[in-house]
Design goal:
This protein is α/β, with parallel strands linked by helices. It has one domain: 3-Layer(aba) Sandwich (Rossmann fold), CATH 3.40.50.620. Helix content is 35%, strand content 12%. It has a five-stranded parallel β-sheet with strand order 3-2-1-4-5, sandwiched between helices.
Length: 223
């Protein structure tokens, strides 16, 4: 089985992406990030469930984006609760996926893996610019220009985005078909101190909408 690095936040999308990597015959190596995010309880969920969900190894990389701020997830800025907006929301974390993919690329090169999975979506999403196909294509090109493996021709890196053109309902249906237990996930941007999802932030709204459209019950408890 070929190795693949899977960006894994314990969210609905990244968990489904991990299951898809396994189903496609890869040995998934999960990578999560402790970047000073408001919803750091997602890390506890990720650490508890990564191997149960099929990860061969689980790496947590720590750095602190609160030093720069600029997002409701990394600064003292209120998380919007009024619904999904049509513009880039304040929950966008500057350059987050560029940073995440760079770490994933470094680990992939060390592992001898040439496949990276990321659960970005360009349909039912909050409008983040680093979730678009153009960004992924650009990063893949960079990956093959910026690495020893790419320059020496020992392999070509590929960034897989199996969810990018699916609705949230379709993502959930795909995950259920693969046996994903969505009770082992966390999506909320502004959970309670006990880690209970708010049900009103963009991420919660998109998740709940997806389950409703899929005709399924979300197993999580909400405030």
């Amino acid at each position: 089985m070929r190795k693949a690095v899977v960006l894994y936040s314990a969210g609905l999308d990244s968990t489904t992406c991990l299951a898809i990597a396994r189903a496609e015959g890869f040995s998934p190596y999960a990578i999560s990030f402790d970047y000073g995010q408001r919803h750091a309880c997602e890390l506890a969920v990720a650490k508890a469930n990564a191997q149960q969900l099929g990860a061969v190894e689980h790496l947590v990389v720590a750095f602190d984006l609160r030093q720069m701020g600029g997002s409701a997830l990394t600064a003292e800025i209120e998380v919007p609760k009024s619904g999904v907006e049509n513009e880039i929301p304040v929950t966008y974390v500057p350059a987050r996926n560029t940073i995440f993919l760079s770490f994933a690329l470094g680990w992939a090169e060390v592992l001898g893996a040439f496949d990276i999975f990321i659960g970005v979506n360009a349909l039912d999403y909050s409008g983040y610019p680093d979730c678009r196909p153009a960004f992924i294509e650009s990063f893949q090109q960079t990956a093959n220009l910026a690495t020893k493996a790419g320059v020496e021709g020992s392999g070509q890196f590929r960034v897989h985005t199996p969810l990018i053109s699916l609705t949230k309902a379709q993502i959930i249906q795909r995950g259920v078909a693969l046996g994903v237990d969505y009770g082992l996930t966390h999506s909320c941007y502004d959970p309670s101190p006990a880690g209970i999802s708010c049900g009103r932030c963009d991420s919660c709204r998109l998740r709940l909408k997806g389950f409703a459209e899929a005709g399924l019950q979300d197993p999580l408890i909400y405030q």
